[in-house]
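Are you able to produce any protein sequence you like plus the matching backbone structure tokens because I've never seen that pairing?
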Amino acid sequence: MKRLRSAIILVSIFFSVFISHLSSRNINSSDSKWSIPTALSIIKEGNTDLDEYKEMLEKSNYYAIERIDGHYYTPYPIGVSIIAIPFVYAIEKSLDILSSTVQKLEKYYTKDREYSPPDSISIVSIAPGIELFIASFIVAVNTIFIYLICHRFFERKYSLLISFIFAFCTSAWSTASRGLWQHGPSMLLLTITLYLILLSKNKPRLIQFASIPLVFSYVVRPTNSISIFLLTVFVLIQYRHYFLRYFLWAMTVAIPFTLFNLSVYHSFLSPYYKLWRLLRLDPDSFVALAGNLISPSRGLFIFSPILVFSLYGIILKMKERKFETLDCFLLGIILLHWITISSFPDWWGGHSFGPRYFSDMVPYFIYFLILSVTGILTLKGAKRVVLVSLFLCCVLSSFLIHYRGATDWDVYVWNNRPVDIDENPARLWDWNDIQFLRGIK
């Protein structure tokens, strides 16, 4: 009975998040526009080039396309398209069956007249909708893992609250599920890795499998190299007995990825992974460090004020001298990620909503938020009342902000008007024209 109840809760979480995100109006398929065609190319032709879509490439003026050895490719990581393959395959087969059925019916009902078969539905023509479907699915699955992580620390109602915060009060809603960007799959893979690490406290042998989603997160997004490095050091320190197995499981992802790069790019890594071309250290980097946290139109703590309580969780644990080894490594990942994204020339993430580059770190912030809630629950009296009230106010404001990001296109128009944000990044600091208030104020 208990297992049945747990299964019902997980299914309810999945469909609640999936349907809500899928029905949110905003679709932002720009840099991700070739993820579905690439997946289809893998299925149909066994390669990742987009030569068969040359007409589409010309119409888009070869946006987000690079040419290698006379073939056309998307420059972005292949990991997202690999994850999309089962979805694309299933949708394509469904469309084939639907198209065939429609043609048979039309032929039957027009047998006494001249029949012209209708154009079949092209999966590429509805790619943005498919991106939204897959991205929403990924975030819904991610929310289940967040719930499972939370349930290791406290009872169901608080686990549901934290799961709600992840799904609706962070960039998981306003960015990760708005298109098949790298961020949604990246967040899911890092969450699964964290879950396996936490399970390994009681079942150490599970740590060996954490390397699979962790290494694949690099195939999805290069900045996850920070997580790979620090969490691998953590495994080496804490689970040395299983490290060889951990390493061998990692090779099941690393070797095929390397062979793919050698075959296409004639290099161990594609140009997109050469982060030195993006990293810089100048006075603007210090502006970016502040901007990624408190800029009115890109600041993490402005768009998700609830995550301020993640900092409270860190401070609380340090005060009580309960800061564990894993906590140190996760905090180190967040700090290094913050420094890395702040060194990008376009630290604001181009035409996006809120702190897009910080999206990948949301699972780690949620982990520290769990520690914060655990600490608040131990308090009594006026201090508890004040903190709970502040907590709920932050939840509400975070929800409303990301609701706008997921449902109101005015907030994306903000990137273009009155001046393109990439041409005038000073707009990021304009408190009179905050992105999530565009269309209201």
About this structure: Residues 127-437 form one domain.
